[in-house]
Design brief:
133 residues, globular, alpha+beta, Arc Repressor Mutant, subunit A, 5 strands, 60% helix, three-stranded antiparallel beta sheet
Length: 133
């Protein structure tokens, strides 16, 4: 085999190291955008900016801490902006950036797919669960 032996006997083919770097980058991004809370927040922000409590009310079952972590992660990744208005009490809005809006279409399509095929998936789950293993 052409290449250099790496630790543990694995061979590295010269010129192909970028594949593992790409996989790492893609995995990290998919971990963010594939998270259920991220998908719901991006879907909600698709129709315009929202306040924290408005998002919390609309996303059933999310804790304040989890919403805070989700929004911070989205902001860190450049998908969401956080705007603080200097009024009393302070007002904070969250909105999708251009990059976030480019994610909204696939998220919306995924949501439509889930709604369209939900009954089929539920039926398949019931068949699977009722089959002895």
């Amino acid at each position: 085999m052409t290449g250099q032996a790496a630790q543990g006997g694995t061979f590295l083919i010269q010129g192909h190291m970028h594949l593992s770097e790409d996989c790492t980058r893609v995995s990290s991004i998919l971990a963010r955008v594939g998270d259920k809370w991220t998908v719901l927040v991006v879907a909600l922000l698709g129709d315009g900016p929202k306040r924290f409590n408005e998002i919390k009310r609309m996303v059933g079952g999310i804790s304040q801490r989890m919403l805070t972590l989700t929004l911070r992660g989205l902001e860190r990744d450049g998908l969401v902006t956080r705007t603080v208005f200097p009024i009393i009490p302070p007002r904070v809005d969250y909105a999708l950036t251009d990059l976030g809006r480019s994610l909204w279409n696939p998220v919306e399509a995924l949501g439509l797919w889930a709604r369209t095929h939900g009954a089929e998936i539920e039926a398949a789950r019931q068949r699977f669960d009722s089959t002895p293993r």
